[in-house]
Amino acid sequence: MSLAGLARDAGDAGDYFIPYPDQVLENVLENVLVFLKSRRDRNAVSLVCKSWYRAEAYTRSEVFIGNCYAVAPRRVTKRFARVRSVTVKGKPRFADFSLLPQDWGAHFTPWVAVMATAYRALEKIHLKRMSVTDDDLAVVAHSFPNFKELVLVCCEGFGTGGLAVVVSECRHLRVLELIEDEVFDDEVDWISCFPSDGPSNLESLSFDCVESPINFESLEKLVARSPLLKKLRLNRHVSVQLLYRLLIRAPQLTHLGTGSFSPLEESNNENTRETDYVSAFAACRSIVGLSGFREIAPEYLPAIIPVCANLTSLNLSYANIDAEQLKPVIRHCHKLQVFWVLDSICDEGLQAVAATCKDLRELRVFPIDGAENAEGPVSEVGLLAISLGCRKLQSILYFCQQMTNAAVVAMSKNCPDLVVFRLCIIGRYRPDHVTGEPMDEGFGAIVKNCKKLTRLAVSGLLTDMAFSYIGQYGKLVRTLSVAFAGDSDIGLKYVLEGCTNLQKLEIRDSPFGDSALRSGLHHFSNMRFVWMSSCQVTQEGCLDVARQLPRLVVEVFRRDEEEGGQRGDFVDTLYMYRSLDGPRADAPLFVKIL
Amino acid sequence: MMHLKETELCLGLPGGGSETADTSLKVTGKRGYSQTVDLMLNLQTNDQSSSSADDKNSAANNNKDVIKPPAKAQVVGWPPVRNYRKNAMAQKGSGNDEKVAAAAFVKVSMDGAPYLRKVDLKLYESYQQLSDALAKMFSSFTMGDYGSQGMIDFMNEGKLMNLLNSSEYVPSYEDKDGDWMLVGDVPWQMFVDSCKRLRIMKGSDAIGLAPRAMEKCKNRC
């Protein structure tokens, strides 16, 4: 019913009579809010008044849960009734580096159990660092008739058996992306379980992390009957010869993960030499993203040259290649925006990147060798070259053995758009190798000059001075990672008192104790989590925080799962986070919740 | 406290590299590789580097004594490279010229199988163990008889020809010289040092390799 119609009904009263004004407002609002996608905006809308809260809850179709223990599943489904997409994140990031005990938690089971009845129209599930079982996957497959997208990042607990159930029963599946998961080899031929009647809806299939071999014939047939397939990321069991067969069937691909990128056999294969990989790539005019190269035979790399001019994303971070092997390829990549690579390319390789990739936004340089050595293949030379050549850089992750303040300062000035700056000097406590000074000034310059910085990871020899800079200038910093740094409690105090937007704080092996912890009491409830391991906080200090902030869940444990959580006088690991529903019921015995 | 033996650099699948008699490939329950390589990509700091670092540290070394680990101790989770990536890199067995080769990864292909596997020869102590592992990987493959010492008796032409005339699969390998040889012609350790890759082929296809193998064996022994 329209407002005009209502006014007419009121006759010539000269007054607008609108029955149930709140209802009308809510209807209008709902129609508007459907277009509002941003989480932050929606959260703001929901705070205006009860009516807006209801309207917003009714129209939110994508729910994001940043910490699976911050809220109980039922609370979510009660508030948001008409959800099509759910994202849940579980374990803290340091779990990736074996700092979290095996059975700590982050189980998907309670979530899927509740959603199975509450969200019958669910289409998309995106999980990060969750423990997912085959049974959970079976529930997904059976409960959501419209299910379209499954994205699992850094998850574990499931196997190829679970995958088989999903792909065979989710008939509308468009996206299946497995990214850096640990997948058990149940020796199930899951690729053959995709329905084989008629064309498939598949748009994206990523299984590069699945360590078990794949039935290639089935995969080839699947690709052949998937006309909408745009993203295909193969695992390392697919040789370059097999890749060729897929490429010629799917020239419409936009993103390709190449598998091993080496031949199955080198001997007695003249026909391999004749295979025209270059033409196969040339026929793929739409490719903008390349990854894989898991066991690269470097002589095959030039085959990708035909697609380089269009590439916006190139991930060579599993490819052990040197500068000479990189150069013929990278010099064509003028449009490259995202580049991941191994430090085997050396400073010289980075100079080649800087010379060509003027549009680069994100760079990640991973170490081929994690040992703490005096010298490494990349250094301040490479960092400086990148800063001079790639002025639009927004995000950098750089592993190296040695660094200078000068280079970091230069980057802070040359790349003012930096949002993410993560420098990992592998040698712990290593100072500026030219001046012998701590790395304080370099990181200080970053927080001072990069006005958009929201994420920072520090390393090298750092005194409390570095943290004073971070607290003073890092007003937009939301995520801070600290390891083997600082002198005393004052360092952490600077950060907790200064970084007003801090959301995620992860610290390991640094001399911060109870006094520093106390200085954050005003802010912890505004944060997603705080992680402190091998620091100097005591049980009493943690108890103190737990008592003063009842809405905070304060977990204390030991990495080796010994009960009690103490290592000598100090707590081994402290992990605390805000929660609407109190301490979790599924904490294992070795986790103490204060 | 850590024992130094346990801190030795090694790359490999779970259960690998130990000194114990039982070095058969174990899959330690659910966590196939996550427990292993977190200790791997790690410190064998050469003495020069750690001492120079210490000199520069002494100035700023106030409360660090409590936390700073001894130079050669393990540091779990450092550098912060995801376990997934560490495992993937470890499987390459490539890169550094270590004085002591930490692992000996070789590619294994089997005629007729659509995929390539990799195996770390250092995990095994005999041909029999290797044979068992390969049998698990390529389940349709049954290896010929390796005799009591675990080596093909190359001196016995009759036995050898029987093996090669069967339809059973026989592993062959490419050695340092680029020659394709039958697996089992040399003592185990020599094999591990010289094997570059493995190919499992039908006995009948391998017949051509026999004469060369016997020739080389005679020259070596």
From TrEMBL, chain A:
GO terms for cellular component: nucleus; SCF ubiquitin ligase complex. InterPro entries: COI1_F-box, F-box-like_dom_sf, Leu-rich_rpt, Leu-rich_rpt_Cys-con_subtyp, LRR_dom_sf, Transp_inhibit. Residues 22-61 form the COI1 F-box domain. Its main location: nucleus. Residues 82-127 form the Transport inhibitor response domain. GO terms for biological process: auxin-activated signaling pathway; SCF-dependent proteasomal ubiquitin-dependent protein catabolic process. It is found in: Nucleus. Keywords: Auxin signaling pathway, Nucleus, Ubl conjugation pathway. It comes from the Eukaryota. PANTHER family: F-BOX/TPR REPEAT PROTEIN POF3 (PTHR16134), TRANSPORT INHIBITOR RESPONSE 1-LIKE PROTEIN (PTHR16134:SF36). This is Transport inhibitor response 1-like protein. It comes from Deinandra increscens subsp. villosa.
TrEMBL record, chain B:
Keywords: Auxin signaling pathway, Nucleus, Repressor, Transcription, Transcription regulation. One of its GO terms (cellular component) is nucleus. Its main location: nucleus. PROSITE patterns: PB1 (PS51745). GO terms for biological process: auxin-activated signaling pathway; regulation of DNA-templated transcription. InterPro entries: AUX/IAA_dom, AUX_IAA, PB1-like. The keyword DNA-binding does not apply. It is found in: Nucleus. Residues 103-203 form the PB1 domain. Residues 47-64 have a biased composition (Low complexity). Residues 47-69 are annotated as: Disordered. It comes from the Eukaryota. Aux/IAA proteins are short-lived transcriptional factors that function as repressors of early auxin response genes at low auxin concentrations. Homodimers and heterodimers. Belongs to the Aux/IAA family. This is Auxin-responsive protein.
